[in-house]
Amino acid sequence: MSRSESLALRRADLIAQCDLQRRDLALTAGDVGRSLWVVDAAVVASRRAAAHPALLVGFVIVAAVVLRPSRVIRLLTLGLPAVLSVRRVAALWLHRRHHGRDLLDS
């Protein structure tokens, strides 16, 4: 086998590997895109809930009727600290982001 034939085979092999990697990357990117869509939907839902506290109270009342009250209490005791923590982190992030802009503007 000549050097040019060897290089041609190597090139074909590398192109095939690139094609496989592109397909894997496309599948992974699709999975990441779907995951980000779920995160975006959760953010939108949490913003709506924060903007409409009556809606949140209504949801808790419906959940209490559908689920047993003990489960609702357990969910609230687990969920409330998580919600408060997320709000604190968001407030800190917005605070740092705002002050970072001030430093860049001056």
Explain the layout of strands and helices.
Blueprint: H1 3-51, H2 53-66, H3 69-105
Report on this structure.
The protein has 106 residues and is mainly alpha-helical. The chain folds into two domains: 1-51; 68-106. The chain has three helices and no strands. The protein has helices at residues 3-51, 53-66, 69-105. The longest helix is centred in the N-terminal third of the chain and has 49 residues, at 3-51. The mean pLDDT is 81.
Keywords:
106 residues, mainly alpha, 2 domains, 3 helices, 94% helix
Strand fraction equals under 5%
> What percentage of residues falls in helices of 4 or more residues?
over 70%
Major sheet attributes? none
Order of helices and strands: HHH
Oligomer: single chain
Whole-angstrom Rg: 26 Å
Protein structure class? mainly alpha
Overall body shape: elongated
Tally of structural domains: 2
Short synopsis of the structure:
The chain has 106 residues and is an all-alpha fold. Helix content is 94%, strand content 0%.
